[in-house]
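Thread: Modeling a multi-component assembly for a lab meeting

Hi all, long-time lurker, first post. My supervisor asked me to bring a structural picture of a complex we are working on to next week's group meeting, and I have zero experience with this. I have the sequence lines for every component (708 residues in total). Could someone generate the structure of the whole assembly? Inputs are pasted exactly as I received them:
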Amino acid sequence: MIRIAVDAMGGDFAPYEQVKGAVDALNNDKDLYLLLCGDETLVKAELAKYQYDETRLELVPTTQIITMEEEPAKAVKTKKDSSIVVAYRLLKEGKADGLVSSGSTGAVLTAGVLSLGRIKGISRPALCPAIPNARGGITLLCDCGANLECKPNYLRDFAIMATAFAQSAHGIKNPKVGLLNNGTEDHKGLPLQQETNALLKETVGIDYIGNIEGRDIMYGDADVVVADGFTGNIAMKSIEGCGKTVSAKMKGAFKKNWFSKLRALLVMDIISGIKKSLDYERVGGATLLGLPKAVVKGHGNSKANGFAVCIKLVAESVRGDMVGKIQSMLEKIKEQERLALESATSTVSDGAQE
Amino acid sequence: MIRIAVDAMGGDFAPYEQVKGAVDALNNDKDLYLLLCGDETLVKAELAKYQYDETRLELVPTTQIITMEEEPAKAVKTKKDSSIVVAYRLLKEGKADGLVSSGSTGAVLTAGVLSLGRIKGISRPALCPAIPNARGGITLLCDCGANLECKPNYLRDFAIMATAFAQSAHGIKNPKVGLLNNGTEDHKGLPLQQETNALLKETVGIDYIGNIEGRDIMYGDADVVVADGFTGNIAMKSIEGCGKTVSAKMKGAFKKNWFSKLRALLVMDIISGIKKSLDYERVGGATLLGLPKAVVKGHGNSKANGFAVCIKLVAESVRGDMVGKIQSMLEKIKEQERLALESATSTVSDGAQE
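Re: Modeling a multi-component assembly
Sure thing. I ran the full set together rather than chain by chain. Output:
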């Protein structure tokens, strides 16, 4: 049984959509056990609306909420009975294997690091959303805003973590990894990209295909795109803005007059098929990589469907032993570094003997 | 009469589309005089296909071409009779007021700076493409790749130049300027964005609206979006990739079977209207800001229509005295700095008198 702590109070439509999404996820996966953290009265009232297996759902009453406006570090430290802090406590105490929240990104990140710490050997945790791509699959973009100022080894860790995540949660056997840059040639980019490109080339355990450009994110040649959090954030939101603009233009054009409205009815299925295939709610929220447990941050405006996908994503990450995969990849790299050091030392001593 | 030097040999479809585009531009603007730099035989053969006012078009024979693969600085220095170098020579000698090329970006940039130098007081030239936005207008994104590593005063200069360009070439009276960042609050971003945000707030002559996010580029709240060249490049190409992906998805969905093909015919006008309104060829190439003359770099894969728009863009920049506007804005800033210094000095001497 996979046990997931659910923050029922985080998000624009909490707890209504969160509770509905949790029930949906529960009904779709008989191997799931959910611990809903939230206001007892509100959550109970919502739960009463649905049919579900009550032996696999537990309400963990909480009395506080961390809002989007609060300073994350301060809120996490003072609001000990907030839904997100309590949810993390369940993870820490071993009562749950994973966590889902649509609350403030800052709070989810801060509470996560403060209560669980990092996987040993990982430099920084990172946010990794999935972006629907042209091939009908998804492209993972890591990092998207958790770390603005980065060093090459942070990006190497992002590549490792996102590779393990792609394998365990998305079933991509050998994820191709690209580095987001302003061109494909080796000399492209700022020193960060140039050094990271060199480092990724010699990193064991990942399938590095080299520099890729902004346009390649959605083409889907790489399964994992690695970037510093600032650049990743700009890319992700630029894509979001473009997608929403095209969508709004379509709506406007088809609603222009009675004749266009009539024709909209005729192609409705085609248009909504395209929209659905590119809908980011379909692919869940951003996974917080680098913690010793699986954590997904849903979109603030998640509806039940999107939230249920987030819960499924956490369940798959647990089932696929994402954290274990990250750890064994780190060990391989450590071993590689040890061997390289040994060989360097022996070369030096060989030189000394001559 | 506005005189424009045209690189007829740069671009994937040169000189065919370039010559056709030049003739189109000439026929649409009776106040234009074009100097076509290119292979005499090839260009003459193309020109022979079209009707145009021969008194306003001059062929300047050149014998060399700089390709996309060549190292720009070396190519520009050694290929003195290449179409792009000759075109710039016409500007330097005062025989032309502006230049258009769809050749290698590096070569257009390098040859420009080497032959013309910069506008006095401008720290760095920048590339400024126009992106069609949700409001049916355009958003100027400056810089998009000419300067990867930037300082706050570079970005201030980009804001000034793009403002003058928006006013003179695009007829936007009071362009709103935004700074591309990972959030709208003042504390957001790396030190570069934080310092630039503070600097832009006190810059005279621009209408600064603060930090904006990646998604806002296409929403069109800002007419000018300022960024370092690395970030701007990632944003521009991420948008391009999203647009092309949506377009490909549409094509695929409507071509799926005979029934969808039939329905495609019924909505063809609506779909192509949307495509056209978001087509970047419609809004021309990237303007190279910071040189003492108006220069536009067309897309490498420009067709005649797109190339004609680039020529129009240069003509409008010359007509609207873009360079003069930049210079007078720089003078205002200098005056502001002088006054600030004076007031600081007088405060110090006041203090000394007490």
